Amino acid sequence: MAARPRRAKSETGSASAAETRPEAAAAASVAGVPADGSYQAPVAVPDGRPAGTPHDELRVWLRLLGASNRIESILSSRITKEFGISLARFDLLAQLERAPDGLTMTDASRRMMVTNGAITSLVDRLVEEGFVTRETRAEDRRTTVIRLTAEGRARFLAMAASHEDWVVGLIGGLEPQARNELSRGLSALRRHLDALGA
After folding, report:
1. Kind and range of the H or E element at 136?
2. Residues 78-125: pLDDT tens digits?
3. For the region Disordered, what residue ranges are annotated (predicted)?
4. What domains are there in the chain, each with its CATH number?
5. Roughly how many angstroms between the first and final C-alpha of the chain, as a whole number?
């Protein structure tokens, strides 16, 4: 299934990149670019290139950011329209499906890279809708564990199957060679970042 880890979102439905990925939005802001990757501002160049010519590295980053945000926007729109659920709640369900013994609120917050307050809001909705249960540990009343219900897991798997089809349709539109080159390039980038400890 193609569910992603995922991130903070507005509970009104789909969310902007700034809402869903504060770290990406902050980085874009520092670089002087919008979070959607639509960058046209001049870049200072000390190496003799014309002013306004971005570094290749910056151009690659902006294209990665723009493509990621576009795919996320499409998926968010489709899952809300088809299943009446936000992408943020879907992402939390995906994390819980991978954790049959459940997750503490802190673990869920860490996996989703959002605050405990954001997780609490998502969990409140999912409990209301019958997707999850929320229990306090007997040995530690300060710790709350959330788990998928049987009905919640069945409903999530149906959504995940559609989500996977959508992702395959979006990425599958690339020519095989382009797709393979993109995969190799992204793998190389990930290895490079891992080596930096990023």
Report:
1. strand 132-137
2. 999 999 999 999 999 999 999 989 999 999 999 999 988 899 999 999
3. 1-31
4. 17-196 (1.10.10.10)
5. 27
